[in-house]
Amino acid sequence: MKKTTMTDLILIITALLLALSAGLFYSYSCSVNPGLKQLGDSEYINAMQSINRAILNPVFFLSFVGALVCLPISVFLNFTAWDSPKFLLLLGALVLYACGTFGITIFGNVPLNEALDAFDLKNAAAAEISIARKNFEIPWNNLHLVRTVASVISLLLVLISLTISSKATTLITS
């Protein structure tokens, strides 16, 4: 049996954090979004405001930000050559997660969440509530789909990298 190194351990932790993050986004896409779609406009906005406030917690941040911290460390620790399969897989995972998951969330979903949070549901007319939902739901769900796919593919790349020996240093062998 192979001895587990610190590099291996960090890569396993990276995979775990990515799995937690990707799993959250995936389960949200499969259950929460379809459930919310069935709600009336007022109930939808109330539920999303509540969810968006509840997600801001240390457990979520541990996996979401932790994956972004561990990925570049794993890329660095697994660098053996510029064309190393393991390095390239991890670099791809980093780019996908940093841009497609983290970036989309910070620059897309979060501004929509903040705008929805500022919406005064209690004092809004039905037409205003309907407009607020339309301005939020479709763009938010589209962005969520992108970050879900990006996080799942990022996880897949990391899992594949776990199967590659560190001795497999280049794509082209002589």
From TrEMBL:
This is Putative membrane protein. The keyword Membrane applies. The chain crosses the membrane at residues 59-80, 87-107, 145-164. Keywords: Membrane, Transmembrane, Transmembrane helix. It comes from Flavobacterium endophyticum.
